[in-house]
Design a protein that fits this description.
348 residues; alpha/beta; 434 Repressor (Amino-terminal Domain); Rossmann fold; four-stranded parallel sheet; 12 helices; 12 strands; elongated
Length: 348
């Protein structure tokens, strides 16, 4: 069995191109000391012909950062974060960059550990997508890690909530939930329930409070026993619906603080002998692709997920603002589908 061929070295590229190793390194890896376009072209063509693979670590040292964008999401299996990541990747491709993704599983400690690891890899930018955790000391430590990274020239962008010491792409969670509540009242809802993820996550807190405000605007109220707090996933939605219906059996309209939770809640309804939409109206938040295919199709708050990721990526490669951090607000809208039919008490 023949031996594997040895990888082409930078020295071999330099010799074939007729330049020094230092010049070849500057041409391939980049440097503050630029070489002429003719030499750079010759060296790169020689490297391609010989099959030389650049050393990404050397490029990071030479440029002060790599060609990598580091992305931290809460849950890569959640379609919400998958869609955002797809938008980030589209922006990265356009910029000639690559993306590394890590999932923190909705845990600030995991986010902190991941950011520490990413810092050692010297990415061009770090993008964090996920709700801020209210009152968690690890959130302060995370900000300190990111500030130290930014102080060395790295860019930090949050797809999260303001205020933040970093640039933020911020979703109008509160406003979207408020509009949804008004819409559901107009469609005849009278006895409301909410299935929510942990309130310590700012996303859930804002969506619950926005929904309360929308009901109040319409002369309605959400009672405390009609709000069920469960894990922020499909199984949490299933568990939450069973709990809610046992606690408030007369509920006629339910808001789940994410579409994934709403899908789990609809399954729970069926298992309890109820028909989603007909017996109990249900709405979600995010407008992930799946909700257009479930039966009945889900009423929800539309979030331009891929566009949020793309805008975060564009912000990450722009020159940082010398003033206060940039906040890009992303608006939402309500789309009404078959899961919330007009009920007999519909209001004008």
């Amino acid at each position: 069995m023949g031996r594997k061929s040895q990888p082409v070295t930078l020295g071999e590229v330099a010799k074939a191109a007729g330049v020094s190793i230092a010049t070849a390194s500057r041409a391939i890896n980049g440097s503050s000391r630029r070489v002429s376009e003719d030499i750079e072209k010759r060296v790169r063509e020689t490297a391609d012909r010989l099959g030389y693979l650049p050393n990404l670590s050397a490029q990071a040292v030479a440029k002060g950062a790599s060609s990598t964008i580091a992305v931290v999401v809460s849950d890569i299996a959640d379609p919400y974060f998958s869609a955002i990541t797809a938008g980030i990747m589209r922006g990265a491709r356009e910029a000639g960059l690559v993306v590394t993704v890590a999932a923190a599983e909705h845990t600030p400690q995991n986010e902190l550990d991941i950011v520490r690891t990413f810092r050692g890899q010297r990415p061009r930018a770090i993008i964090l997508s996920g709700s801020r955790t209210l009152g968690d000391p690890n959130q302060v430590l995370l900000d300190q890690q990111l500030e130290a990274y930014a102080a060395t020239g790295g860019r930090v962008v949050m797809i999260s909530q303001s205020p933040s010491p970093f640039d933020v792409v911020e979703l109008a969670n509160r406003e979207g939930a408020r509009e949804l509540a008004r819409t559901l009242v107009q469609r005849g809802g009278e006895r409301f329930g909410v299935i929510a993820g942990p309130r310590k996550l700012a996303t859930n807190h804002d969506r619950i409070e926005g929904f309360r405000e929308g009901l109040s605007d319409s002369g309605m109220a959400l009672f405390e026993d009609a709000t069920v707090e469960v894990p922020f996933n499909r199984d949490g939605g299933y568990e939450g619906m069973r709990t809610l219906l046992s606690r408030v059996p007369e509920v006629d309209t339910v808001f789940a603080t994410s579409d994934v939770m709403a899908i789990g809640a609809m399954t729970a309804m069926r298992d309890l002998g109820k028909s989603p939409g007909k017996d109990v109206s249900i709405a979600g938040f995010d407008d992930i692709e799946t909700v257009r295919d479930v039966t009945p199709r889900l009423t929800t708050v539309v979030v331009p997920l891929a566009d949020m990721g793309y805008r975060a990526m564009r912000l990450a490669i722009e020159e940082p603002s010398e003033q206060k951090p940039v906040v890009l607000r992303v608006n939402t809208s309500v789309v009404v589908r078959e899961s919330t039919p007009v009920r007999t008490a519909a209001r004008a």
